[in-house]
Specification:
The chain is mainly α. 75% of the residues lie in helices and 0% in strands. It has a single domain (10-431), classed as Growth Hormone, Chain: A (Up-down Bundle), CATH 1.20.1250.20. The chain has helices at residues 10-14, 20-39, 41-49, 54-59, 65-68, 74-79, 90-110, 118-146, 152-181, 183-190, 195-204, 219-234, 239-248, 251-257, 260-266, 271-300, 302-326, 330-357, 364-394, 396-405, 408-420, 422-425.
Length: 437
């Protein structure tokens, strides 16, 4: 798939944001974002306020590894029917089932007390991860199969809008409710953020571009349903190099992002300051980045817009090294968070659009699960196993400088893939085929 040769005008680049498919991506994105916040920044703040040590808190990021393991059960979402609910459609039925599971898991996490039983908290966080990862499998497949190829950029933008509304909204709600009524009430109040995706699936129905592959009877057919999606992907020219890029491109960004709340706590920022500057300023910067990401993707095409994103995300980590050196500074916090969220918003749109375009429409859930899981597994492993120790040994300034350096291999590799044509050659039918073709 080549970058667009005919560049639409500004209005043409903005128009897809108003189409129903993109609006659907917004609402399912809201529900996708909130489970991540429940075991991410929100849980980090909760544990820090319960006086749990830094190394233990950093190890909690291993709960995110469940998201990286979703590739092993994503084929079930593609090929197993949900009893009774399946009459509503494969994607709709799984959206409803996984949404209920997420709500139950978040409610369970609300009832544990980290100060009294850290083991129960670990188990509860993992259960939220399992339910949230399953929800993500369904949401990603629903989004990709609903969007037309030309909508992948703006649709990914709307999905990122929704993700940030869900994650930031859940984070802000949790912080504000926890300060007044406690963490149990905070978590329970956030559980209902699963409803936007569930209602969207019921109202909009099955995706137009969905290709049905459910015909599993014997052991051979089941194995083919598991192996088939991966075999198809790796038979493409350049697929292995694409996978290497997916594995390394986000190491620095993931390592930095999962430790921000530790830095804020170490610098003495209050819940209200975090809510205003991290959630508030960051939210609007993210929205601006997302909007420009969709427009620039449409104007510049896939390859150049992705390369710009990789560079911006690398530079953004330096802002937190500067904040750590400056100390408790609201202006510093707003500046670092603002640039980081702008870069993440822009990057989230164009990189997610690229990853979506890599999928074959026959295996959307399984292939996107592979891609999205691989995208952050290395960074999450490093965060959970080494981040706490690195911070304690070298301090926050050196730590965030290191995360910037770790972004360089991904930039260099993607530039090389552009020059050799591997970016185009590995694109799947989700990036090229329209409904009915």
């Amino acid at each position: 798939m080549e970058d667009q040769t005919t560049k639409p005008g500004l209005w043409g680049a903005v128009r897809p944001y108003r189409e129903k498919e993109s609006l659907a991506a917004l609402f399912v994105g809201i529900s996708s974002g909130f489970p991540y916040a429940m075991i991410g920044a929100t849980l980090t703040t909760r544990l820090a306020q319960d006086a749990i040590d830094t190394v233990t808190i950093a190890a909690f990021t291993l709960a995110f590894l469940v998201y990286n393991l979703k590739v092993f059960w994503a084929w079930i979402v593609d090929g197993v029917r949900v009893p009774v609910l399946s009459r509503l459609g494969q994607r709709v039925s799984w959206m409803l089932l996984s949404g209920v599971l997420v709500m139950a898991a978040v409610a369970n996490l609300a009832l544990v007390d980290p100060a009294q039983d850290i083991t129960a908290t670990i188990v509860a966080a993992i259960l939220v991860g399992v339910a949230g990862a399953t929800f993500d499998i369904v949401i990603d497949a629903y989004r990709i199969e609903t969007l037309k190829p030309y909508q992948l950029g703006t649709g990914s933008g709307m999905s990122q809008y929704g993700w940030r509304i869900g994650s930031a909204g859940a984070g802000a709600i949790a912080l504000l409710v926890a300060a007044r009524y406690g963490w149990t009430a905070a978590y329970i109040s956030c559980a209902f953020l699963a409803l936007p995706a569930m209602l969207t699936a019921v109202i909009l129905g099955e995706p137009v571009r969905r290709k049905v592959t459910i015909a599993k009877k014997g052991v051979g057919e089941v194995w083919q349903s598991i192996a088939g999606p991966f075999g198809e992907f790796f038979r493409r020219n350049g697929a292995w190099m694409v996978l290497v890029f997916i594995l390394v491109h986000k190491i620095g960004d993931t390592l930095a992002n999962l430790t921000f709340r530790l830095l804020f706590d170490a610098l003495g920022f209050t819940n209200d300051e975090i809510a205003i500057y991290d959630v508030g300023v960051g939210f609007w910067a993210y929205l601006i980045g997302i909007f420009l990401g969709g427009v620039i993707y449409t104007r510049l095409g896939l390859k150049r817009s992705v390369l710009i994103a990789l560079i911006l995300m690398a530079i953004s980590n330096l802002g937190f090294a500067a904040l750590a050196a400056a100390g408790h500074s609201n202006i510093g916090l707003a500046s670092a968070i603002g640039f980081e969220n702008f870069a993440s918003g822009y990057g989230g749109v164009v990189v997610v659009a690229y990853f979506s375009a890599l999928c074959d429409l026959r295996f959307t859930a399984a292939q996107y699960a592979l891609i999205s899981a691989a995208a952050s597994i290395v960074g999450r492993l490093l965060t959970g196993t080494t981040a706490g120790g690195l911070i304690e040994a070298f301090g926050y300034v050196s730590f965030y400088a290191l995360t910037t350096i770790l972004a360089a291999p991904g930039i260099a590799l993607f530039w090389w893939m552009m020059r050799t044509g591997l970016v185009d050659e590995a694109i799947g039918t989700a990036g090229t085929e329209r409904a009915g073709e």
